Amino acid sequence: MEKEKINKVRDILEWVLCIVIALVIAILFRYYIGTPTIVKQPSMYPTLKEDQRLWLNRWQRTTKTLPERGDIITFEAPSTTVLSPVEIEESVLARYQEPTNLFEKFTYHVLEINKISYIKRVIGVPGDHVVIDDGKVFINEEELEEPYLQTGIVTDANDGYCTDLVVPKNSVFVMGDNRSQSTDSRCFGCIPLEKIESKVWIRIWPLNVFGKIDK
Questions:
Q1: pTM, whole model, 2 decimals?
Q2: How much of the chain is in helix, strand and coil states, percent to nearest 5?
Q3: Mean pLDDT, to the nearest integer, of 13-28?
Q4: Looking at the annotation, which residues are catalytic?
Q5: 136-139 and 196-205: which strand pairing?
Q6: Under DSSP, is residue 194 helix (H, G, I), strand (E, B) or coil?
């Protein structure tokens, strides 16, 4: 009888260990390799539409590789929505408030509990001089061709002040394709490499638009 109890306890412990291992593997895969997500805002319309399901590639974050111009990425939402002209003089990088202790850092950054992420397109990379003027985007004094925008779309400041800047090292300037409905780098500044979470890779739902998302 005592042996049966010991065997039952051993079986339970083995199952618990298997579940813990599976959870750890799932968390590590989600953080370092990739994960699904749902489009919740219209800021990338018409390229991405609300309620579409996407697969995110997080390998670039794992290897600390900057995305290229034209890539669609996800990143941690900045704490400050709009930088003031005074703040911009200090730095054109987006501002973030970090969790204060180890447990909060784990739940926020790894488990992503209460974490908000944005999906935008990379417009400027380090060293690019980005200027928004006359309804258009200029990179290094040349007008940027943007075939992904709807006809007639105008790019203005959108209540932000980051409309003439040089993208700092290890950061990117991002905007949504639906310019009038997007809070982006025009408002909160450039996104540091360490805050970039993933590259949007594949649209997995609905099935009629399933496929890799190109620039």
A1: 0.90
A2: 30, 25, 45
A3: 88
A4: 43, 120
A5: unpaired
A6: helix
